[in-house]
Sequence to fold (203 residues):
Amino acid sequence: MLALAVVLALGAASPNQETARAVAARQVLRECGTNAVVLAAAPDANWRETESNAEAHAQLRAELGISVPDGRERILIYGIGGDLETWTHSIVLTRDKSGRWRFDAVGRSRAWIANAKPFAYPPKSGEISAVDGKRIDSILVDPCFLAEPAQLPVYGGGESPPVGATVWTVETAGTRIARRFSIIGTPKSRSGDLLAIVFGYLR
Fold:
């Protein structure tokens, strides 16, 4: 797909390239189902790549005494939000030597009270099932996923994110095509589908 090639070739687009990236992405999204209408309505700036949170992962995990899992292929998911407290999460998916995805999740919260001590959530780790692993692999190379805005969901018409919403920054590294985006919740999108799979292992 020529339009998708343009999206990927632009990489970390400058402000002057945002319009070209958005136009190319919208051409792809028109073929991606009904929700593409909503995604394609995003302003050009929504395709601006979000900043990396790799250092935030490292800092949180260092303070919790748990290292960042290493791997040739990784998906890093960092979340921060809160209402009456601030919670932060570091979720890292790595592909093992057998080709299966594994997850490792840590997090903590701190109440909005003077001198409140942070509370660490019990860490969770394990293996992603073969079925869900194939779903993840399919999403990572899906043109619809690659063309989606880097900021989701799309708010407009006076809408705004819900109070206390957790903002997740997702980064793929070592995969066939790298991507970085921010997302709130799991809106109907391929990006939301990816998070929904991962969150299913953390309940």
